[in-house]
Amino acid sequence: MAKKEMKVEKGVDLQRYMGRWYEIASFPSRFQPKNGANTRATYTLKEDGSVHVLNETFSDGKRGFIEGTAYKADPNSDEAKLKVKFYVPPFLPIIPVVGDYWVLFLDQDYQYALIGQPSRKYLWILSRKPDLDEEIYKELVEKAKEEGYDVSKLQKTPQSDPPEEAEEVAPDTKGIWWIKSILGK
Questions:
Q1: Which residues pair with 100 in a beta bridge?
Q2: Which of 15, 103, 154, 171 could make an SS bond with 80 (beta carbons 3.0 to 4.6 A apart)?
Q3: In the chain, where are the structural domains located?
Q4: What is the C-alpha to C-alpha distance for residues 140 and 59, in angstroms, rounded to an integer?
């Protein structure tokens, strides 16, 4: 049986979407450390209409991060289907890796979002704050389920309040976070 087509938000105002988003929950993936906490993404609109992406996570007392670029998958569509491109390894950027970033749900105040992609292998619940009301969380999980996601894979991301700041921890200057993520550690 073919999977139904996912419902994707339309008419998202990228300017309003910019800023910091905290990862409330996600499907585990090999490109994020298993013991990552305070994971977040910061988006900045660039003059050419693309988006600078800074993904950060903290593990073993160090800040790991990767930077990339997001852009509309189809510039003529009003659907919130983006492509995100990162270069790996981040300490020697030579190989481009491109993925899908689909905004499946976004509240009208741009305070929380459900992000997925067509294969349904990745899913993120994001919030402007490091915590999210449990009722809203359950609603987003239900929306993901309706879109064909196996929500039993969702894992909540530990977030401290107030969240750690990059200046407060040692940076991962050797790319250890990236190497560990490739090895699945």
A1: 83
A2: 103
A3: 14-162
A4: 26
The percentage of residues in the chain with a pLDDT greater than 70, rounded to a whole number, is 84
Superfamily holding 14-162: Calycin beta-barrel core domain (2.40.128.20)
Q: Is 120 helix (H, G, I), strand (E, B) or coil?
A: coil
Whether the Cβ atoms of residue 137 and residue 24 lie closer than 8 Å to each other: yes
**Within a 10 A sphere around the Cβ of 52, how many other Cβ atoms?**
14
3-state helix, strand, coil in the chain (%, to 5): 15, 40, 45
Token pair belonging to 118: 């067509």
Q: Indicate the DSSP class of residue 167.
A: G
Q: What radius of gyration do the chain's Cα atoms show?
A: 16
> How far is the C-alpha of 17 from the C-alpha of 19, rounded, in Å?
7
| pTM for the full predicted model | 0.86
Q: Which two tokens stand for residue 38?
A: 């305070």
**pLDDT tens profile 100-159:** 999 999 999 999 999 999 999 999 999 999 999 999 999 999 999 999 999 999 999 999
Taking the C-alpha atoms of residue 67 and residue 93, their distance in angstroms, rounded to an integer, is 10
